[in-house]
Amino acid sequence: MFYCPDILHSFTLSEEESQHAVRVLRLQTGDELELVDGAGGYYKAVISNPHPKHCEFVIKETFTEFGKRDYRLHIAIAPTKNIERLEWFIEKCTEIGIDEITPVICRFSERKIIKPERLEKIIVSAAKQSLKAYFPVLNPICSFNEFIQQSTASKKFIAHCYEQDKQLLQQVYQKSSDAVILIGPEGDFSPEEVQKAIQHHYQPVSLGNSRLRTETAGVVACHTVSLINEK
């Protein structure tokens, strides 16, 4: 699988993808390619010029809205102190299926800076590996307060660890519903943040009896929504 975001304007792989196709996989003229544009387009093509810096191809079949879901999932998550854990979350949720990811800075956040370029590369790699034609959008990092004021999803949830009357995510999420889920930092959301989210119509939810790391909670939330929509 190769990523070609400008496929409708250029029938040439990027230099990085060309090197992988020609020098690593040793593909030649006439060999088949599977291509995605990250926006729902899936293409079958054949190589016409196997140049290691600008490999050219001819499209044979086009599939639009390939793998499109009837719901949208947006997870807002506090960046983890160990950036590799956030990278793992992004990789796994891209493989499972997610539409938007927003890093949010909370009161107890230990990391307030990320490098989006590295995370974007992880998204591309994971999407290609899992045959996804739609790539999730990685939004700019923002504060907790900024985020809860701008979200417009029909279903909004905040997963936290405080003792409170709350239901499991799978009990309250409805199939085919657009949803946004807030996942807090290692020290959880502050009580004030939880109350503020509730005031903005976020429903408190539990992800189970186990106490989960931030990145694990994000993956569990993503997988829960995915499984409900596969029923």
How are the secondary structure elements laid out?
Blueprint: E1 2-3, H1 15-24, E2 32-36, E3 42-49, E4 56-63, E5 73-77, H2 83-96, E6 100-105, H3 116-129, E7 137-138, E8 142-143, H4 144-150, E9 155-159, E10 167-168, H5 169-172, E11 179-183, H6 191-199, E12 203-206, H7 214-230
Parallel strand pairs: 1-2, 5-6, 5-11, 6-7, 6-8, 9-11, 9-12, 10-12
Antiparallel strand pairs: 2-3, 3-4
Task: Give an account of the 3D structure.
With 231 residues, the chain is α/β, with parallel strands linked by helices. It has two domains: 2-63, Ribosomal Protein L25, Chain P (Beta Barrel), CATH 2.40.240; 73-230, Alpha/beta knot. Helix content is 32%, strand content 23%. The chain is built from seven helices and twelve strands. It has helices at residues 15-24, 83-96, 116-129, 144-150, 169-172, 191-199, 214-230; strands spanning 2-3, 32-36, 42-49, 56-63, 73-77, 100-105, 137-138, 142-143, 155-159, 167-168, 179-183, 203-206. The strands form two sheets. Strands 5, 6, 7, 8, 9, 10, 11 and 12 form an eight-stranded parallel sheet that branches. A four-stranded mixed sheet has the order 1-2-3-4, with no helix packed on it. Helix 2 (83-96) runs parallel beside helix 3 and helix 2 (83-96) runs parallel beside helix 7 (214-230). The relative contact order is 0.15. The model has no long low-confidence stretch (mean pLDDT 95).
